[in-house]
């Protein structure tokens, strides 16, 4: 009987620069080192069923993320400690629970720190008032997103030499806008160079569904 | 701001930032202030390629075993990162502690292929160091280099202080001991280099003079003083079982080219293909015992967690009882969902069964390297593969569900005739027919790949001319036209100009160091990467230095010509190479070391299978 476990973890630099695919591979390896039997898919190229609830773009730090994994065995409570002993710097396991329900992301809080000119916030506020649109092209398909359809609130202010922009983003039907995209759109339209020095997901809200 | 923070700030908009973060599984962490010697292993290519190199990982862990040494790594940054570093005025840094490389005591380059020579220079530039050994004073890092390319060190002679010839496991420790003496005394750099030259396996190019004949060939290579050895003899590890092998091996966080654990099961090759440099320089064959292989495999799986373990060597089938070992490893690997791969397995019905059993994960592809299209030419190169064997294996393979067949050949081999090229077509055609006769429904894919013969130093063909570009083109077209007539065949050929440059650099002399520097100044880097390689820039570099590159690639040498690499003693005698070359002209084959010793000379090393023969 396979059990589905839900792991909570945080991610900071330098591990934040590991890509989504590499994160999956990394955890597969860590579980193998701990001799924990995961459930694998069938077929020619079996891979373990490790699913991250939210994809993490390269460079994103986060206070709390979740992945779920199916195990062929029951996990003991010291699994968190064992993982933390071998995790690379930047990753930290927080807790684990048996997943009996399903969860969905409802909303997210982000903080972006950028290096930019003095007047950044003034222009950014102006930009945000104009109900901006993000056009994204992927494999020939263009998706158009109205920022305010997803954004609940934001705040832009100066802190210790950098600009800090906080976003509260709503997830609508599984879709959302990325703060990096908003910033890129802004810097293109206003021709203002803004160099991201840190992007962080500070809090994620979940809905439990049966 | 400290280097680490500076680096991380650049990573938000470079390709694959994971290349630059270090922090891998089993990385070695030390306090730099607490060691005597800081050593930087540099690989002149991107992270994903460098971290696939087993030699680099062995040396990394070996050096870090020493308490007085901290060995760190650096790779060639991709062009986007280079630009950003330049803009910020940053130097090349190590991945362990993000220390700029000019702060290290020793910088060691791994030279795996000639096409990375420009990257070596580029990395020295990125370190902010003078390129030439002569201009680097005491207090600046000593630059050393090892790896297969050092068997002809001359093209890089100006830039490297000390070349390590052969297997580095022991030499490197001797160099470090000497370096310690040098660092903590008022010993001059010149004196250090002289003492280095006394270590067996160390070639210090500054301590040799090269004289030339009017026709541009070499007249003499002479040591500058009596206590510098007239020849540099390669170093080997006599016994693999007692030599160092790390089982807590550093394991990348991002996907690298060979994303698996590699375990070396033996060193050397006893087959003696006449074009193959590895077959000469890694002699003699030394097996690792079955117990050690199985034990290491177990520890590696436990410590690295990878989903694949690869048992590597130059010719896997020559390992005694390879199937027993593979099955032994399978016992614990299968349970942990770890796949075993067996590269360079000679394919026959027994190995097919083995493959089926152990390589469960891989898409079934069969690879053959007959190298030449006819038996006559295969005898010339001493490649012992019979056409009938290919056909019978292919038939078995088709019946067992293999659908992809890959065939590797070489064009432009010495004594090649057009009928040998047609022979390649014949093999492809016959394989396709076997498939048709069996009457399977699934589609088959036959891939034919050809590379161009590159005459390599220390091989029986070291004196041969390489085909001209025009000839290469003609031969490729001839084969292409013929292969078009066979269904389900795909044909790939290796870039002519890349093979040309490889031929030039691998048999180059000291004059090429200036050309390489010019090439770098003209913007050459990542020459091994199709999108960057630009032969016209190289042509310009040669033109500026007033050197005809054809002199190095397209010219046949006399047996008595002094060759730039004659300074290096591989243990295999020149007489043996010459005899092999003459036998090639007569299509006479030489038996493998496993059947009987043919007296290549390497027995003088008293290691491996030569003993008792
Ligand atoms: S000495 Fe003999 S057995 Fe040893 S490598 Fe040479 S030919 Fe082979």
TrEMBL record, chain A:
The organism's place on the tree of life at top rank: Bacteria
Pfam families: DUF2344 (PF10105)
Descriptive protein name: DUF2344 domain-containing protein
Residue ranges occupied by any DUF2344 domain in the UniProt entry: 4-179
Organism of origin: Caldicellulosiruptor owensensis (strain ATCC 700167 / DSM 13100 / OL)
InterPro entries (alphabetical): DUF2344
TrEMBL record, chain B:
InterPro entries: CHP03960_rSAM, Elp3/MiaA/NifB-like_rSAM, Radical_SAM_N2, rSAM, rSAM_horseshoe, rSAM_sf
A Pfam entry, by short name: Radical_SAM
Coiled-coil region list: 462-489
Xref: Gene3D superfamilies: Cobalamin-binding domain (3.40.50.280), tm_1862 like domain (3.80.30.20)
Residues covered by the Radical SAM core domain: 255-485
Record-linked SMART domains: Elp3
GO molecular function term, any single one: catalytic activity
Keyword terms, alphabetized: Coiled coil
PANTHER family, per database record: RADICAL SAM DOMAIN PROTEIN, SLL1084 PROTEIN
NCBIfam families: rSAM_fuse_unch
This protein's name: Radical SAM domain protein
Organism per entry: Caldicellulosiruptor owensensis (strain ATCC 700167 / DSM 13100 / OL)
């Amino acid at each position: 009987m396979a059990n589905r476990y839900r792991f909570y973890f945080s991610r900071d630099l330098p591990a934040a620069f590991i890509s989504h695919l590499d994160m999956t591979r990394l955890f597969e390896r860590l579980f193998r080192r701990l001799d924990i039997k995961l459930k694998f898919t069938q077929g020619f190229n079996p891979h373990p069923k490790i699913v991250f609830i939210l994809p993490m773009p390269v460079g994103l730090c986060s206070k709390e993320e979740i992945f779920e994994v199916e195990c062929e065995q029951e996990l003991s409570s010291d699994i968190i400690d064992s993982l933390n002993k071998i995790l690379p710097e930047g990753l930290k396991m927080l807790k684990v629970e048996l997943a009996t329900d399903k969860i969905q992301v409802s909303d997210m809080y982000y903080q972006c720190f950028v290096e930019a000119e003095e007047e950044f916030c003034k222009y950014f506020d102006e930009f945000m008032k104009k109900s901006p649109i993000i056009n994204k092209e992927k494999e020939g398909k263009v998706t158009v997103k109205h920022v305010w359809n997803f954004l609940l609130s934001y705040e832009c202010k100066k802190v210790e030499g950098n600009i800090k922009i906080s976003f509260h983003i709503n997830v609508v039907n599984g879709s959302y806008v990325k703060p990096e995209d908003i910033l890129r759109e802004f810097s293109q339209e206003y021709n203002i160079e803004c160099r991201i020095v840190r992007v962080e997901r500070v809090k994620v809200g979940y809905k439990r569904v049966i | 701001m400290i280097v680490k923070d500076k680096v991380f700030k650049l990573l938000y908009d470079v390709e694959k930032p994971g290349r630059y973060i270090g922090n891998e599984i089993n990385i070695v962490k030390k306090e730099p202030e607490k060691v005597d010697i800081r050593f930087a292993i540099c690989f002149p290519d991107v992270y994903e390629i460098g971290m696939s190199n087993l030699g680099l990982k062995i040396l990394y862990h070996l050096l870090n075993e020493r308490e007085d040494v901290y060995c760190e790594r650096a790779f060639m940054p991709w062009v986007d990162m280079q630009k950003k570093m330049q803009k910020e005025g940053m130097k090349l840094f190590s991945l362990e502690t993000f220390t700029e490389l000019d702060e290290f005591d020793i910088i060691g380059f791994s030279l795996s292929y000639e096409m990375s020579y420009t990257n070596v220079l580029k990395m020295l530039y990125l370190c902010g160091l003078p390129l030439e050994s002569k201009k680097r004073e005491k207090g600046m890092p000593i630059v050393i280099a090892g790896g297969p390319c050092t068997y002809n060190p001359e093209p890089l002679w100006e830039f490297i202080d000390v070349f390590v010839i052969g297997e580095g496991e022991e030499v490197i420790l001797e160099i470090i001991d000497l370096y310690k003496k040098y660092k903590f005394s008022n010993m001059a750099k010149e004196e250090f280099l002289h003492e280095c030259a006394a270590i067996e396996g160390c070639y210090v190019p500054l301590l040799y003079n090269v004289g030339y004949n009017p026709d541009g060939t070499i007249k003499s290579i002479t040591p500058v003083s009596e206590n510098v050895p007239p020849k540099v003899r390669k170093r080997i590890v006599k016994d693999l079982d007692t030599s160092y092998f790390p089982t807590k091996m550093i394991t990348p966080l991002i996907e690298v080219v060979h994303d698996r654990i590699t375990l070396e099961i033996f060193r050397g090759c006893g087959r003696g293909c006449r074009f193959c440099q590895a077959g000469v320089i890694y002699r003699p064959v030394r097996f690792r015992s079955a117990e050690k292989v199985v034990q290491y495999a177990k520890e590696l799986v436990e410590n690295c967690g990878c989903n694949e373990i690869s048992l590597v060597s130059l010719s896997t089938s020559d390992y005694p009882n390879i199937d027993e070992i593979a099955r032994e490893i399978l016992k614990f690997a299968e349970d942990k969902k770890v796949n075993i791969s067996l590269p360079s397995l000679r394919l026959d019905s027994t190995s097919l069964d083995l493959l089926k059993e152990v390589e469960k994960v891989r898409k079934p592809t069969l690879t053959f390297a007959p190298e030449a299209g006819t038996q006559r030419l295969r005898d010339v190169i001493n490649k012992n593969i019979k056409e009938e064997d290919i056909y019978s294996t292919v038939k078995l393979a088709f019946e067992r569900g293999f659908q992809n067949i890959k065939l590797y050949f070489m064009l432009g081999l010495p004594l090649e005739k057009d009928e040998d090229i047609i022979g390649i077509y014949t093999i492809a055609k016959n394989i396709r027919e076997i498939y048709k006769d069996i009457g399977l429904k699934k589609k088959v894919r036959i891939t034919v790949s050809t590379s161009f013969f590159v005459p390599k130093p220390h091989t029986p063909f070291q004196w041969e001319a390489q085909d001209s570009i025009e000839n290469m083109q003609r031969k490729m077209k001839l084969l292409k036209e013929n292969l078009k007539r066979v269904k389900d065949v795909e044909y790939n050929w290796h870039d002519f100009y890349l093979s040309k440059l490889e031929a030039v650099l691998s048999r180059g002399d000291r004059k090429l160091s200036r050309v390489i520097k010019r090439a770098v100044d003209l913007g050459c880097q990542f020459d091994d990467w199709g999108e960057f390689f630009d032969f016209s820039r190289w042509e310009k570099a040669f033109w500026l230095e007033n050197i005809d590159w054809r002199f190095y690639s397209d010219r046949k040498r006399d047996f008595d010509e002094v060759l730039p690499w004659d300074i290096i003693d591989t243990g295999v005698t020149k007489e043996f190479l010459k005899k092999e070359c003459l036998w090639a002209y007569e299509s006479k084959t030489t038996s493998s070391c496993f059947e009987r010793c043919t007296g290549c000379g390497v027995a003088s090393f008293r290691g491996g299978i030569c003993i008792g023969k």
